[in-house]
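Hello Y.,

Per our agreement to keep a running log of every chain we model this quarter, I'm adding this entry. I've kept the format consistent with earlier entries: sequence first, then predicted structure.
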Amino acid sequence: MATLQGQPVLILKEGTQRTVGRDAQRLNIMAAKVIAEAVKSTLGPKGMDKMLVDSLGDVVITNDGVTILKEMDVEHPAAKMIIEVAKTQENEVGDGTTTAVVLAGELLKRAEELLDQDIHPTVIARGFRLAAAKAVEILEEIAEKIDVEDEEKLKKIAATAITGKHAEYAVDYLADLVVKTIRLIAEKTEKGWEVDIDNVKLEKRQGGGIEDTQLIQGIVIDKEIVHPTMPKRVKDAKIAVLKAALEVKETETDAEIRITDPEMLQKFIEQEEKMLKDMVDTLVNAGANVVFCQKGIDDLAQYYLSKAGVLAVRRVRQSDIEKIAKATGAKILTDLRDVKPEDLGTADLVEEKKIGDEKMIFIEGCKNPKAVSILIRGGTEHIVDEVERSLQDALKVTKVAVESGYIVGGGGSPEAEVSLKLKQWATTLGGREQLAAEAFANALEVIPRALAENAGLDPIDILVEIRKAHEEGKKSYGVNVFSGKIEDMMENGVLEPLRIKKQAISSATDVAIMILRIDDVIAAKGMESSKGGGGEDFESESSSDED
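Predicted structure for the entry above:
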């Protein structure tokens, strides 16, 4: 509100909140630091878990950074920006979400100290930007090459992603499973290796132990055979994949059929039956003995299929239809008038099995297993969910390693090395940007410090030892949280893709600079807490495809 000759002039709506200058910066930084602190204790193999309870009473127990932030109902706009960092990190590389968020929080904490020394936010932003670019250069210098054929290193990368989660006690078994999966679906292109994670179908079933999780070189679908008299097991399957319904089509326009005697009614029914029989005969004559249909199958069509000894499944999700077609080499048919034998896919075996309480269809021994399934087992629903999250992280991380072809050590070793080199490089900068670059270098040490704290070690002692090791040229030395000592992470097999570290630094820097440059927050009256909670930015991974 301004005044003109003693008369008040309303500029903003009544009830609008406005925070300006240092207060706005301080509040934004505080909100970002609170989010970073919330996930900091989950970092590393010895990180703790969080129990998240939503408004409906549903419980999620996890130490996966992105899942925690997704479930948190966040109100503050700066906090939402930090959650965006986790979202970006997850979408781009699949892991390192906690690292990115913790680093963003630490960068803002260091920036606040510089603001207190009257250094302008744009100067800090420029120093951070220069330091981030140099940090990426240093990371590329210390990275090592890796190939899809290097199974042992790939297993170690997958194991690093799984360690610290609920699935940890079966880490070797799951890491082996992940590497086999990635090698099956990896495709060589002109640019290098490409891995499409969408070709991996994760199916969950409560019951059994984590070691009962299995890789199926084919597709598993959560459906049952439509008719009880159909065969439950078909060897040398010839598979028809349909998008059309095995039903008599309704007319698209309003139509009226006048029937004047019972004979006409009988002919009408017989004609409908003939149409259904013709559809089934078309499929059987082409050689199909298994049918997967995205839409419905009429009861009479089920009878005819059953009589012909065909195994049929209806209402299969579109994503599953596409995977079945890819794995078996089938064409997706939308018209049943012209089905040829070459339109059918092949598999060694299609079988209905009972897993836990429910039945599932297994398609195994596919011609081209570029689409595969992992059937996840575990003692409780929460464990099965957490194993699924662990496998998703491990699959994405291994994919990134195969595609980018470069890895670095874990355990805080790359951050410690980059921090040391940045401090040496910062002295070459002129002006106040040097202070910002030094602050950036110090902020990177939050990762080894947090790993040490979460493992119950003395963070000061660990940081002193890690600095000493890196000054002696031991580039890949980091924190072994199990032994409590500083060891060579490359030799210990604690490996991470280079791209995860680069993305974490880049995302954290971007959001820190964005928050730093805000000096005025204008909040409209009546901002409802239910609108724009942090979780809104994330798509639900469990949402099923439309039929």
